[in-house]
Design a protein that fits this description.
Number of helices: 9
Strand content: under 5%
CATH superfamily: CDP-alcohol phosphotransferase transmembrane (TM) domain
Order of helices and strands: HHHHHHHHH
Largest sheet: none
Mean pLDDT: 91
Low-confidence stretches: none
Number of domains: 1
CATH topology: Four Helix Bundle (Hemerythrin (Met), subunit A)
CATH class: Mainly Alpha
CATH architecture: Up-down Bundle
Structural class: mainly alpha
Radius of gyration: 19 Å
Helix content: over 70%
Length: about 240
């Protein structure tokens, strides 16, 4: 583990050299979340926090945002709080891994904890939307199916992505994520897969008080994510099959 070799600016410079590859990263994650996470990781380093400590703060922010969705009627103030908490939680979710790489303290236990928190978040998010629909709106019950469908798609997508990444690393004989320089995606690709980005969902969930606009955007995102996972599953299966 590194000694406190420098302050915030030193950590920020070091972190810039230890970023994960941008290959496959959607636009929000690539251009907003990772840079924001880098700054939070540098701050966490300055405060002598551990990666698991950052993961815990990330979980607190994220689950607080989800609780607000299910627990309070949609208003612009509630929406602002939801978006802020989810955006901060997502940035901290990036920061814990960056801090681990900076400190040289990455471990299977830390990655396990990070993925477990992410899986709980994935399992709860759209259920909270469903609860909000039921408690605070007079929507036709068919809209409940949109939230349930999104829940299924999100869980399948998360599990498939994590499993493919683990098998890919196993096949290539590495225990760590690939750093930048190990391939990248074009800005156009990053924009094309933006609808699959959790960061975009964080912002959209802040619009639940604007019911017509939210329902339209939410439904379009579901369609985009469904198309993505149908195409991606075939591609990932062919890739994993080639490992044989």
């Amino acid at each position: 583990m590194l000694q406190n070799a420098g302050g915030y600016r030193w950590a920020l410079t070091e972190l810039n050299q230890r970023q994960k590859t941008s290959k496959g990263a959607p636009a929000y994650s690539r251009y907003v979340n990772r840079p924001l996470g880098r700054r939070l990781a540098a701050l966490a380093y300055k405060l002598e926090m551990t990666p698991n400590g950052v993961t815990a703060v990330s979980a607190l922010c994220t689950f607080s945002g989800i609780a607000l969705i299910a627990g309070l009627p949609p208003t612009w103030i509630q929406g602002l709080a939801v978006a802020a908490l989810l955006v901060l939680g997502y940035a901290l979710d990036s920061a814990d891994g960056q801090l681990a790489r900076l400190q040289g303290s990455g471990s299977p236990a830390g990655e396990w904890l990070d993925h477990v928190v992410d899986s709980i978040k994935t399992a709860m998010l759209h259920l909270a939307v469903l609860v909000s629909f039921y408690r605070f709106t007079d929507l036709d019950e068919r809209w409940y199916l949109v939230a349930l469908g999104f829940q299924v798609v999100a869980c399948v997508q998360f599990f498939a992505m994590i499993l493919t990444d683990q098998l890919r690393r196993l096949n290539q004989g590495t225990k760590s994520h690939f750093l930048k320089g190990n391939g990248k995606s074009s800005p156009l690709y990053s924009l094309a897969v933006l609808p699959t980005d959790f960061g975009l969902m964080c912002l959209v969930l802040g619009l639940m008080f604007w019911q017509p606009g939210f329902l339209l955007i939410y439904s379009l995102l579901l369609i985009a994510n469904l198309l993505f996972i149908v195409l991606a599953l075939g591609k990932w299966y062919k890739e994993v099959r080639s490992f044989d």
